[in-house]
Amino acid sequence: MNENKSSGIRAVNQDFRKYDQVKKDQSYHLVEQGDSEEFDDEYEIKVCDISQYMLGGEEDRLAFSNALGEALEGIGFAILTGHGIDPKLYQEAHQKTQDLFERTTQEERLRYKYQRMGSVNQGYFPMKETTIIHPDLVEGWVFCRRAFNLDGGDFDEKQFWPRPGYEPFFRKIVQAHLQLSLPIMQSILQYLGNDPHSFDQRLQGTNFGFRLNYYPPITAADDASGAGRMLGHEDVDLFTILPAQEVEGLQVLNRENGKWIRLNAPPGSIILNTGDYMQRLTNDRLPSTTHRVSKPRNRALHDKPRISFPMALYLWEEEVIEVLPGLGKPKYEPVSALKFHTSITSKYYGDDYAKDVK
C-alpha cells in the first residue's frame, strides 16, 4: 500500500477540495471511523413510484415529478418502485457479476485494465485500485456505451469483454435503465420549472458508465487495516441508477446533521441519486450527495461477497454543462463535460489525468 492510500484511511474529503467543480461544504472521513461516527436512524429516503409518470395521466406525472424532486432536493437520493424491470433480471445479473470475477482469472481480467477513453476511465479495476487515495476493498469493471452493441455498425465484443455471453446479457440491463433515464430527467426538469423535454435529444445515445462491483469476502487482515469497501464520494454524473443490493453497506451522508443514513432498499427496487453534473446544472439546488460502502455490521456477512451494478448517466465530452434557466443568478460558468469530468476525477487518478484537457 503506498503512502497516499495509507493516509487515505484517515483522510477527510476537504483534503481534496481543490478538485471539486461544485460547492461541497460537507466534511467527512473517507472511511467509517468506528465508534466516533454518528448515524441517523430516523431519516427515511423517500420511495417514489415511477409508474405514475410512465403510465399515468397529467396529474399522476406531476405528482411523481414533485415527489421525486422533493426527495432529490432534500437528500439527493430516492428509491424508485414501479419501474417495470423484472426482479429476476437483477437476480441473474447478480450471479453473472459474481461469475465474471470468480470464474475468470486475474490474468484474463488484467488484459482489460482501466484506461481513459474520453473523460472516463474504462475497464477493469483490480482490488484496492479504484482510486489512488484509498485502498477500497472492491474489484470493479466499468463499461461505457462503446462496450455495448447498442448503435449498430461494427462491434467487437472481445475488445471489452473477456468471454462471450456477458455483453448481450448486461446489454439488457443497460437498455432497461436507458428507458428510465428520460422519464427521470423529464420529471426533474418539470419539478425545476423547465421544459421537461429540453434534454431529450441530448440524452439520445448519450454516454454512461455501467460499473460491475465485486466486494470479495473480507479477510481478517483487511478488516484490521481499517480500510472500507468504497470510500466516501459523490458521483460525477447526472444521476446514478442502482438496483438494490443483497448485502448491506451503502451509507448516505445527511448534510443537515452530519450523520450517516444506512440505506437498505427493498429487493427489486432502484436507488437513484444525483451527481456533480446535476448539481452544476441546477445551480446547487439538487445536491450531489455523499455516500460510501462500509463493512456489514453483521460480521457473519463478512464471509459473503457483495455485488452491485450501478449505472451512471453522463453527457458526451463535447457537451456544455451550463446552469439551467430560471434557477437564479448562475454560480458557475459554462464548462465542457470533458474538462468538468476530468478535473473532478483527477483526485482519484492523479493530476496527469486531466493534463491534456483545455
Overview of the structural elements:
The chain is an alpha+beta fold. It contains ten helices and 16 strands. Strands 1, 2, 3, 4, 5, 6, 8, 11, 13 and 14 form a ten-stranded mixed β-sheet that branches. α3 crosses α6 and α4 crosses α6. The chain starts with a helix and ends in a 9-residue tail after the last helix. The mean pLDDT is 95.
Summarize the structure in short:
By secondary structure, the protein is of the alpha+beta class. The protein has helices spanning 3-8, 51-55, 58-74, 87-102, 106-110, 166-191, 200-203, 220-225, 276-281, 337-349, and strands at 47-49, 77-81, 115-117, 120-125, 139-144, 208-215, 230-233, 239-243, 250-254, 259-262, 270-274, 291-293, 306-308, 311-313, 320-321, 335-336. The strands form 3 sheets. Strands 1, 2, 3, 4, 5, 6, 8, 11, 13 and 14 form a 10-stranded mixed β-sheet that branches. Strands 7-12-9-10 form a 4-stranded antiparallel β-sheet, with no helix packed on it. A two-stranded antiparallel sheet has the order 15-16.
